[in-house]
Design goal:
With about 280 residues, this protein is an alpha/beta fold. It has a single domain, classed as Aldolase class I (TIM Barrel), CATH 3.20.20. Strands 4, 5, 6, 7, 8, 9 and 10 form a seven-stranded mixed beta sheet that branches. It has a three-stranded antiparallel beta sheet with strand order 2-1-3. β5, α4 and β6 form a beta-alpha-beta unit. α2 packs across α3 and α7 runs parallel beside α9. It is globular and about 50 Å long. The N and C termini lie far apart (about 35 Å). The relative contact order is 0.12.
């Protein structure tokens, strides 16, 4: 919990004392807040079925994207307070329900609490892979400390142009931070591996969100993945290319042909021989 005394869990490094209840960018203190658990039904992929139920951490706006599809959770902080013991019970219960993994969505600002919960959960029989499902705007120091703790990393790569990361996320350093973080995650867990039942067990799955008017720098993103990450693999990296933007906020983005750019992103993935993903 030392990180909470001068919080530096994300690249913003606000250094407020969360143990004393001080608030800064993410607007939270020491306590764990999680959105009420809900079931995510994922359409079966021929070789991948990755997530069925999620502890969703509230006040997740360390990155600050206003077009987040979970705006009521990430910005408005809707959720309920739970203790570390509560979280242990939740994880064990999810395993009993037959879930494939424990998928923490945007866990950055709750890493100390999550890590503190794992020894007890393991003592109580937890054996599921731990998924770190994040924006890709992470502290490289924290990610290095998570080696051996996280089984599956699911980071976003939203854009590699600081003009847009500044304008839409107030994070001019996002491109460089994101690159370093993805490389470190891949060093730890390698490419995504799938068991004989078609379920992900370990590795890196990179998500790329397509946005209008080339805001998402799709060519640069996919070129980086192919040349800086996949080059260290026996095969290509797993990627997910999506259009996961909240409709009510997309009008605040510059207008463009989103569908056309999505198809172009798919073509760039093929051009760089990134054939594993969805």
């Amino acid at each position: 919990m030392e990180f909470l005394k001068e919080c530096r869990l994300c690249p913003r490094e606000c250094r407020v004392n969360r143990l004393d209840g001080e608030l800064e960018f993410a607007r939270l203190g020491q306590s764990s807040w999680f959105r009420v658990l809900f079931l995510i039904l994922v359409r079966n992929h021929p070789s991948l079925d990755i997530t069925v139920q999620v502890p969703f951490s509230s006040h997740t706006a360390t990155f600050g994207v206003f077009f987040c599809q979970n705006y009521d959770i990430s910005h408005l902080g809707n959720g309920e307070r739970i203790t570390i013991s509560d979280l242990v019970r939740v994880m064990v219960r999810l395993q009993e329900m037959g879930c494939h993994n424990i998928n923490f969505v945007t866990p950055t600002h709750y890493v100390p609490q999550i890590v503190a919960s794992l020894p007890e959960a393991i003592e109580r029989g937890l054996r599921l892979p731990i998924v770190y499902n994040c924006s890709g705007y992470e502290s490289i120091e924290v990610i290095r400390l998570l080696e051996g703790v996280v089984d599956i990393y699911m980071p976003d790569t939203k854009y590699l142009d600081e003009r847009y990361s500044t304008r839409f996320s107030n994070a001019p350093d996002y491109p460089e931070v994101n690159k370093k973080v993805l490389i470190e995650m891949h060093r730890q867990v390698g490419d995504l591996t799938i068991n004989s039942k078609g379920v992900a067990e370990r590795g890196l799955l990179i998500r790329h969100l397509v946005m209008p008017n080339e805001v998402s720098s799709s060519e640069a993103v996919l070129k980086f993945i192919a040349e800086e990450i996949s080059v260290h693999s026996m095969s290509t990296s797993w990627i997910s290319i999506g259009l996961n933007i909240k409709p009510m906020n997309i009008l605040r983005l510059i207008v463009g042909s989103l569908h056309k750019e999505y198809l172009e992103a798919i073509q760039w993935a093929k051009h760089y021989h990134l054939y594993r993903g969805f």
